[in-house]
Amino acid sequence: MPMHLNRSQAPVPAGRPAIVRTTSRCRPDCEVDQGSRRTGAAGRWVHTLNPLPTRAALPGLLLVALATAAASGLARVVPSLNASTVAVVLGALVVNTGLHHPVLRAGTHYAAHRLLRIAVVLLGLQLGLPQLLGIGVGGLAVVVATVTITFAGTRLLGRVLGLSPARSLLIATGFSICGASAVAAMREVADSDDEDTAVAIALVTLCGSIAIFLLPALRGPLALEPAAFGSWVGASVHDVGQTVATAHRVPGSLTEAVVVKLTRVVLLAPLVAGVGVAARRRGTAAPISGASSRRPPLVPLFVVGFLAAIAVTSAGVLPTAVVHGATTVQADLLTAALFGLGTSIHVGKLVRTGSRSLLLALASWVLVAGVAYAGVRLVGG
Length: 381
Known about the structure:
Helix content: 55-70%
Number of domains: 2
């Protein structure tokens, strides 16, 4: 019987659909089953990743579900803890204690990619134009200046520290916009791997969790009234959940914090689009010999979904109960995805490169807090 070879060099009978066992671009140690077919005169292999979890992903997804429940439950028992932080730590513990067996990798990989994208889309349902318009011209100027200066400054510092452009880009995005969700959106155009993504999310989650305790303690010395403090928190704290947790500690600051924070989140789409345009131009102008010809997406499809969700919420066509339910689902999916990404944090690799990444994260944290504070002072809260 005639035979041909797939990429893994395993013999496959002619006439049968070939299933290629290939290595994930974003996690080198994770093998992903992809459908394969020949196309074109050269008979090149074209792969399409199934958007739905395969049977092989079920064991890993079961572990993800258990870890999500544990992280959320612990956060409820200990209010000072953030479920996102707990999820990242649990994922890191699993992989560094040798418990992340090969049978689990397909499921944790799926959570770290697909579920994270869905969480970003659902985040858009928390945003509505009417509430965002209440920020005013001065508040909008503070948000735009904070995001711009933090993003550009962090990338420049990353270059000075010798970090890879991809890791610097992800850290800059996470600290300037909205933490893990922003990192997830930017990774589509950053040409990064899971380790870069996991490190960026771990650092932004760590700093955001510390902010829950540190920023309220600084309110007195910085002479901020509750409303001004809320604006400062919204403009400088990374994750939406961390923003709410921080503002909750100072009565009268929550509304301002949420409005300013959600305005920051809206800037996620244009920032990703801008980086995507720049990446496509660089890829077109100076292709690397032998490199992949796949061009970075102008705007990832799930970012379009994020914008569509904002439009749906702004139109007011969804019942309040549906929006609240989507918010809960979004939080759970984000926690699940962060556990999946946590399994990419290898302590050995982190120790070798982590000091520079940590230094960049701390510098970015100081930068975003300083610029936001100056802006709030300038516009009077």
